[in-house]
Write a structure and sequence with these properties.
Blueprint lengths: L14 H11 L11 E5 L15 E5 H8 L5 H9 L2 H5 L1 E5 L8 E4 L2 E12 L2 E7 L9 E7 L5 E6 L2 E5 L4 E5 L2 E7 L2 E9 L3 E11 L2 E5 L3 E5 L5 E5 L1 E12 L3
Parallel strand pairs: 4-13, 5-17
Antiparallel strand pairs: 1-2, 3-9, 4-5, 5-6, 6-7, 7-8, 8-9, 10-11, 11-12, 12-13, 13-14, 14-15, 15-16
């Protein structure tokens, strides 16, 4: 695939245009709603584009993009879906994590959890939970919910299927990494999957049931008043029903 077209236009779409396209499309494929997408020039095709016009770029999942490349998906169908994206119709974009039959390890900022039923519980409500597979060789099952620093839900996981609301300010998927922003430069979650048995929360800024969490790859900080913080760094929790429990009573 050529890096430049006949007009010398590269495939490197500026970040502001990519974000505009994501926001307009609801953060997923405009046809099927899946969250793993490519940026597709459709009006005109990339080979005929003189510039990266956001109105002529849409989001297509890998399968729908392949249909376009193989000429079994028309530009008319893509244009119609672009005008009424699937994610905006259903209110969310979603995708499945690829977990295997080995126990899932979760690195939640500065704390690593292995073989825990409920990793973090706040006021009796789990942030993340892991269930053993019902049958041998089936995948372990992860469920949970993340919020932003105001307590609004951002990403939900229901039995290994994650979803993000189409009303979020910005959700960017690059390879295995999901980045959610509350506003320009305001990152509230960076999450990366490492199939088949690892999930890494690389960055978080969350309020969950009145408890504040913030962290990066190396440390997790927790506060009950958003002023005084406790820090966990290089901590491992293994083989327990509840890994960490908080109650802001």
């Amino acid at each position: 695939m050529a890096d430049r077209n006949k007009f010398g236009l590269t495939r490197n779409i500026p970040s502001a245009i990519r974000r505009e396209v994501r926001q307009r499309c609801g953060f997923g494929c405009v046809i099927c709603g899946l969250s793993l997408y490519d940026y597709e020039h459709f009006e005109p095709d990339f080979k005929d584009a003189e510039k990266h016009n956001p109105n002529g770029i849409t989001l297509l999942c890998m399968q729908c993009n392949q249909k376009r490349n193989r000429k079994v998906l028309s530009v008319e169908t893509v244009s119609t879906a672009n005008a009424n994206p699937k994610c905006l119709q259903q209110g969310f974009a979603n995708e499945a994590f690829d977990f295997g039959s080995k126990s899932i390890k979760v690195k939640f900022a500065g704390v690593t959890f292995t073989r825990c039923d409920h990793l973090i519980v706040v006021a009796g409500i789990p942030v993340l939970s892991i269930k053993d597979p019902e049958l041998e060789h089936e995948p372990y099952i992860l469920s949970g919910r993340f919020c932003d620093h105001a307590g609004k839900a951002t990403l939900e996981i229901e039995e290994n299927v994650w979803s993000v609301g189409a009303g979020c300010w910005d959700v960017e998927c690059e390879g295995p990494k999901i980045t959610i922003r509350k506003g320009s430069g305001d990152i509230v979650l960076v999450l990366k999957s490492e199939p088949p048995d690892k999930l890494v929360i690389e960055r978080i800024n969350m309020k969950f049931e009145g408890v504040y969490f913030k962290g990066d790859k190396d440390k997790l900080e927790v506060s009950f008043d958003n002023v005084h913080w406790s820090t966990w760094q290089g901590v491992s929790v293994s083989g327990c029903h509840i890994g960490m429990s908080f109650n802001n009573a």
